[in-house]
Amino acid sequence: MDDILTVKKLNKSFGKNKVLKDVSFNVQPGKIVGLVGPNGAGKTTIMKAILGLFDFQSGSILIDGKDVSITKHQALSEVGALIEYPGIYPFLTGMQHLELFADNAAESKKDIQNIIDELQIGSYINRKAKAYSLGMKQKLGIALALLNNPKFVILDEPMNGLDPKATKELRNLILSLAKKGTTFLISSHILSELEKLVDEIVVIDKGKIIKQTSMEALSDSNGNYLILKTSDDTQAREILTAEGIELEKSDKLKIKKTSDEQLTGLIQLMSNHNINIVDVQHEQNDLETSLLDLLDNDQVKE
Ligand SMILES: Nc1ncnc2c1ncn2[C@@H]1O[C@H](COP(=O)(O)OP(=O)(O)OP(=O)(O)O)[C@@H](O)[C@H]1O
């Protein structure tokens, strides 16, 4: 399927500070893609460039096959976005914001009501935005991003300021929209939340993309471990080491999982030395651990 977003060799500097270095990645329709990386890595800059808000020195951005730049915005007509702090007018009500940004007032009445219901913002939507809390403003910003049924939605730190209930509601809303075909590019530092949502992640560090991978492949490639509990862990550790089986740094007998047959071999090995395996646990790296590993490796390479 053709990409909804293709970013190719994007370079961007602020003065002498090169903040995006040959950034390339793609997003396929209907996917939820997470853009992750440390503070200052370049996530917001990428999102702003995709939205035609920043110029760039070289490279290209295509949405649905059409070029986007600071002067070419046509492809953005079907894109919804929330970037940094939602731009909200303090003296307008939430409802006035939604009406102001709706494409077609008559047709949008039902859409506006749906969004209000889904995000549960009805109790304060007719109050002036100056009286909104951080989370209320954030929810209004998300409502504005989702208005007009965009095909592609870009959300920069959408969970900022949301309480756990609102975070869960937002997650469910994003998942249900994605099921109906909406595509999402989402940045967030709340990795435990992001991993419940995304199909793929793009990892950026110091302006360079260091990985684009499906979540499935990420946990398969570096995140599966077996933890053995035996009748004699001290002796078992010696036997495993003597066999050249590498143990992870842990006070438990933790071994990187390499194949489905590996456990049978370990049981056989222990049994040959009259040691019983009394328990086996499977452990999988969470997104945070996988990401920290990736960033550590990136530092080693430099
Ligand atoms: N308008 C600007 N003028 C000059 N430098 C900028 C500007 N915007 C961003 N930068 C610089 O670009 C780099 C990338 O910033 P960016 O906001 O894209 O990072 P980020 O990955 O979104 O970080 P965070 O997770 O902290 O939000 C930083 O070094 C930042 O100081």
Describe the structure.
With 302 residues, the protein is of the alpha/beta class. The chain has 2 domains: 5-218, 3-Layer(aba) Sandwich (Rossmann fold); 224-284, Alpha-Beta Plaits (2-Layer Sandwich), CATH 3.30.70. Helices cover 36% and strands 26% of the residues. It is built from 10 helices and 13 strands. The protein has helices at 43-50, 94-101, 105-119, 134-146, 164-179, 191-194, 215-222, 233-242, 262-272, 287-301; strands spanning 5-14, 17-27, 32-36, 58-63, 66-67, 79-82, 152-156, 183-187, 200-205, 208-214, 224-230, 253-256, 277-284. Strands 6-7-8-3-9-10 form a 6-stranded mixed beta sheet, sandwiched between helices. It has a 4-stranded antiparallel beta sheet with strand order 2-1-4-5, with helices on one face. The chain has a 3-stranded antiparallel beta sheet with strand order 12-11-13. A hairpin with a 2-residue loop joins strand 9 (200-205) and strand 10. The protein is elongated and about 75 Å long. The two termini are 36 Å apart. The model has no long low-confidence stretch (mean pLDDT 90). It binds adenosine-5'-triphosphate. Adenosine-5'-triphosphate binds at residues 14, 19, 37, 39-45.
